[in-house]
Amino acid sequence: MWKKYGHKTLVICLGLVLLLGGSVRAAAGEISLQEAIDRALQESLEFKIAQVEWENARIAHQKAAADNLLTQSAYNQRLAELDLLRAEKAYKNSIADVVISAVQKFSDVNTAQMNLKISEEQLRLKQKARDLTEKKLEMRNASEYDLMQAEAALASSRMEYQAAVNNLEEKKQAFWLLTNSQDVMPDGKLPFVPFEAELAGILPGLLEASVDIKEAEDSLALSRLNLERLRLEETAELTMREAENAVRLAELRLQQARASLTQQAQAAFNAVRQAEQTYRARQISLQLEQRVYDITKGQVQAGLKTEDDLSNAQISLWQAERSVYEALSSYIVAYLQWENLIGKDVRDSVILQPVDAGAEG
Question: Which structural domain, as residue segments, surrounds residue 2?
Answer without folding.
Answer: 1-188
